[in-house]
Amino acid sequence: MARDLAPDWILQGALAEQDKSAQWFKQKLANMTTENSADRAKGLALTVIGCGTLGTAILGGIFEFLDAGKTVDKTDDDTPARLPTIFNACVRSDSSAARIRKELGNYKTPINVRQNDNVAATKEADVIILGCKPYATASILGNDDMRNALQGKLLISILAGVPETQISLILYPSGIPKEGACTIIRAMPNTAASIRESMTVLSTPTPAPPADQLTLTTWIFSRIGRVSTLAPNLMDAATALCGSGPAFTAVFIESLALGAIAMGIPKESAYEMAAQTVRGMSGLVLGGEHPALARDRVSSPGGCTVGGLVVLEEGGLRGTVSRAVREATVVASQLGEGGKNVNGTRR
After folding, report:
1. Burial readout 104-115 (b: 16 or more C-beta within 10 A, e: otherwise)
2. Which of 65, 20, 10 is nearest to 43 (CA)?
3. What is the C-alpha separation between 77 and 252, in angstroms, rounded?
4. Which of 60, 179, 200, 322 has its CA 20 to 30 A from that of 194?
5. Residue 11 class from Cβ within 10 Å (0-12 exposed, 13-18 middle, 19+ buried)?
6. From CA 67, how far away is CA 177, in angstroms rounded?
7. What does the domain layout of the chain look like in residue ranges?
8. pTM (2 decimals)?
9. Per the record's keyword annotation, is Oxidoreductase included, yes or no (predicted)?
C-alpha cells in the first residue's frame, strides 16, 4: 500500500523548526567566537627592560604573530589563553629608542618606547623580560620600588651567565617571601632570533612555575625559533653551545669558503655555497639523522671526502671545537659571578 504524504502544513512546520535550530546554532557559534576574541583582546602587558638586539627580535617575533591575526583565527594547545597585546621597550639612550622605533615601526602592533622608566613600565606589565647587561642586574633590580613593581609577576631573564638564584638573591636578600614573590624563569636565546631561527634554552626554577606561566614563556620564545628546557646547572653549557655556538659555526663556514676561494671559486659564491651546505646538514640532523651516519653516507673509500676528513682529524678539529664549548662554559659561569678579564685565566 502506498504511504500517504504528510500534509503541507506539517512539512512547513518541520522546516521552520529546523531553520530555528540552525539559526540558534549559528548565533551560539558567533557568541563563542566573540567571547574568545574578547578574552584575548584583554591580553597581557609585556615590558622588556634593556631592549637590545635580542629583546627587539623577541618583540618582532611576537608582532609577526599578532599582525597575522592568529590570536583569533587559529589557536592550538600551545597557544596560551591570554597573549601579550601591550608592549613596553625600556632603554636609556636616544639612539636605542630610535633604533627600536625604526625596527619595529612597520608592524601594526604598537610599541611604547620608554627611556629611563623601568619601574613605571614594570608596574604596568604582567610579564617582564630582563635583557640588560649582566653587570647592571643589581642596579636595576636591587631596590624596593622595583621589588614592589615585580610583585606576583613573571620575570624572564635572558642574561648570559646570571642564574635564577643570583637574581633571586638580588631581589630578596632576606629570603624569598611566602607571598608576593615574582616567578623567575631563565631563558637563553641566540643571535639567530633576528631571522626566527634561534635555539632558546629555558631553565625553570624549583619548585616549577605555574603551568600557564611556563606555557606563556615557551610560546614567547617559539616565536623566534626552537625551544628546549634544561636543568639550571646545565645553563652555562647551554649558553656556550647555543649562545656562543653561532660564532663558532661562523668560523667554520668562513673556513669552508676560504678553502674554496683559494681554489678559484668567487667569494660571493663560496660563502653562499658554504652556508647552504651547513644549513642542509643542519636540516638532516634536525630531521633525526645522526651526524656520524650523515658523514658516513658521503665518505666513499678512497674518495675526496675521506681525504678531507683525514686532514680535519690530523688538525684535531673535533677536540678543538669541543674544547671551545667547554672554555665558553667556564667563562659563562664566571661572568655571572661578576668576574673581570675571565678569558685571561685560560692556560
Report:
1. beebebebebbe
2. 65
3. 39
4. 322
5. exposed
6. 39
7. 43-230, 239-334
8. 0.81
9. yes
